[in-house]
Amino acid sequence: MKQYDPQMHTTEHILNQTMIRMFGCERSFSMHLEKKKSKCDFRFDRPLTGEEEQLIQDKVNRVIALGLPVTEKHIDMSEAGALFDISKLPEQSIDSVRIVEVGGYDSCPCIGEHVENTSEIGAFRISTTSYEDGVLRIRFKIDR
Ligand SMILES: [Zn+2]
Q1: DSSP of 78-139, one letter per residue?
Q2: How far from the centroid of its chain's Cα atoms is residue 103's Cα?
């Protein structure tokens, strides 16, 4: 199992929830997280405007600045199946599923490492976004 950088990984959760809340889209279907820079791909219907990029960046930074606790809990598979899309979870986690919560902001099944509090993350910056064939790619960095 690949271990992601905890700060980037927690940021990805916040970015996903921000996209859901702002645009009603799904969580990113593909991502590549590195310590220095990362990207997330979303199914989307158009490119973002510069103003929207700024709004997303501001919103993610406001959530980070709230200093939300990042916690985990385990729930059984049947309960998880009713609440979340668990189709992407690895097969060995069949009995129970780990749900990672970022304060009251985001909650999703995840097996990676996260920070304990969003105050540990730093400042989120969108580098660029692009759009092609129904896929919106957001590239971002963290200023630590
Ligand atoms: Zn995670």
Answers
A1: HHHHHHS--TTS-TT--SEEEEEEETTTEEEE--S---SBGGGS-EEEEEEEEEETTEEEEE
A2: 13
94: phi then psi, degrees, rounded to nearest 5? -80, -25
Q: What pLDDT digit, counting tens, does each position of 54-95 carry?
A: 999 999 999 999 999 999 999 888 888 888 887 777 665 567
pLDDT in tens, 96-131: 889 999 999 999 998 889 999 999 999 999 999 999
Cβ 83 vs Cβ 91: under 8 Å: no
- Please report which residue ranges of the chain form alpha helices under DSSP H: 6-23, 50-65, 77-83
Q: How far is the CA of 30 from the centre of ligand 1 (A)?
A: 13
Q: Where are the domains of the chain?
A: 6-143
Phi, psi of 109 (to 5 degrees): -70, 135
CA of 76 to the centre of ligand 1 (A): 18
Fold for the domain defined by 6-143: Threonyl-tRNA Synthetase; Chain A, domain 2 (3.30.980)
- From the CA of 128, how far away is ligand 1's center (Å)? 23
Against a cut of 0.90, is the pTM above it? yes
